[in-house]
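Table S4 entry, Ubiquinol oxidase polypeptide II.
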Amino acid sequence: MTHFFKRLSWLAPLPLLAGCEAVVLRPSGDIAARQAELLVQSTLLMLIIIVPVMALTVWFAWRYRASNRQATYNPDWDHSTKLELVIWAIPLLIIVCLGALTWVGTHLLDPYRPLDRIDAQTPVSNQQPLQVQVVAMDWKWLFIYPEQGVASVNELAVPVDRPVQFTLTATSVMNAFYIPAMAGMIYAMPGMQTTLHGVFNEAGEYQGLASHYSGHGFSGMRFKAHALDGAGFDSWVAQAADSGETLDRARYLELEKPSENVAPMAFAPVDPQLFSRVVNMCVEDGRMCMAEMMAYDAQGGLGLPGIANVTVLAEAGRGTPRPVLGLPPFQVTGICTVEELDRMLASAAPAESTPRDMSPLRGRALEAPQGILGRNLIPNRLTQTTPPAGADQNL
């Protein structure tokens, strides 16, 4: 008996697992519940093959062991049509079923797809989703509520049974936003905007985290997601509005600096253009937004003159420098047209002995595109102050 209990002693730590919550298989949101159903259904389909194979492996090893003289010995056997049919047909049917299940689930649970129901019995009808803008930083999460005019760090609050639309971006490296009890995971990337829809069906406090390694402070990128009733959410918003700390561009640039294990904090009011500027990488003063660059490209582009008018962004306290295509971080401060550059190059053909003019080029009367982030973000006359080290001014 003592020997029997010694054999079972390795099972002693198993009761400790009773304190673990299988949140992925028992979520509190409809989208996460449907994902759990998809996971269980796919697993059961695969077990139709896995379980018989594992069982037959043990049975064959026992049946055809060397000491079993009762087993049939047939060294010349090499083919069975019936056996081949079973071996190939059943797995093929399982693959077809898995493919159909995955195709349907992928479209129904697309993170960009607006919710069609609150739960299995309640359709969405005309209920508008709550807008939450999410910024993944080093190493914390910023949540902006544009409709309520408040923001929070490492703390999320949403109403129960109301669809939530997350729009996400990042400041420096790719990250992954994940609330297992609410919805699936989605990536947040700098210079891009992704979307995730979800809903909570049960009130409570849930865990949110970064599920993609992003550097030294990654382990501290966790936050509490509060699912509240209507009155509780209004109270949380009112409390955030009384924080007394404004989240403008200057405060954001301070918040953007890398920090670890940041305690929850709230802000109000919030710059209404802040999230758009974060996505377009132009929170810093004097930096051209990506939307402006794309607007210029849509109008024909700037050509090579844009390369000849850059200055290194190296001042302290200007936020996180963002390298482009492996080059040192830079910002555009002067633009000249292609015609101006051609006239400058054609105005004189310097002799080989004449040193090249390295003075900076200067833009003249180049209008900014309209309607970018609601207004012009750069002046009509841009000039360059300092050329980058090693840059050829006569490109």
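The two ends are 88 Å apart (CA to CA).
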